[in-house]
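Changelog note: in this version the structure field was regenerated for every chain. One regenerated record is shown below for reference.
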Amino acid sequence: MEGRRRIRSYVLRSGRTTPAQERAISRLWPRFGLEFTPAPLDFVAVFGRDAPRVLEIGFGDGDTLVEQAAADPACDYIGIEVHKPGIGHCLLRAEVLDIDNLRVIAHDAVEVLEKQIPAGSLRRINLYFPDPWPKKRHHKRRLVNPHFLEILVPRLKAHGRVFLATDWEDLAMYLLEVCDAFPGLENLAGRGNFAPRPAWRPPTKFERRGLRQGFATFDLVYARSRAQISLKAESA
């Protein structure tokens, strides 16, 4: 959005990072961290191989991201998060499990997608339990909107998938409406329908807490459709 300030979908919190998390970031960032730069990443150089890639946006404490990467060594995983406590926790878990197929970027997801993720480079994008911004006056802060999808969808390979989940019903209906209306996405459960919960998706901390409180979980699964115009830089 050139020429005006973009409304961000998050508010940075400070003062909650433990000493162990601070030490983890300092010690483990060279191994797992990727600095933000306004240039496309060379994933083959980053991971030392050309493998299918999964991006998780807003990974929270990183437990589900690390669990997926550990269970799926044939794929490379990239996580984006802005909150330091979650980053520190994620790095510690990755070290404990001694995984090599995970990298973390500590920056705004929209800018990372715009500047750092090459077109056509991802097999899957996961967006689990984003901030619902429940008050109507804050709906403009919700991450997913048509402009965001215009940036996100071209980063998928042909027929690449987007997996979303939320336990906030109003947000679920909003996501369904916005994503169903986007011409570059196909709802794999059928237009207007939520998807069954993928068996491989580990429950997040927020999901477990919501289930204890009696909240239902809504899953959505989309594929990049033929209607999406391919970028020239995209790989087949």
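Spot check on this record: DSSP finds eight helices and eight strands in the chain. The two ends are 29 Å apart (CA to CA).
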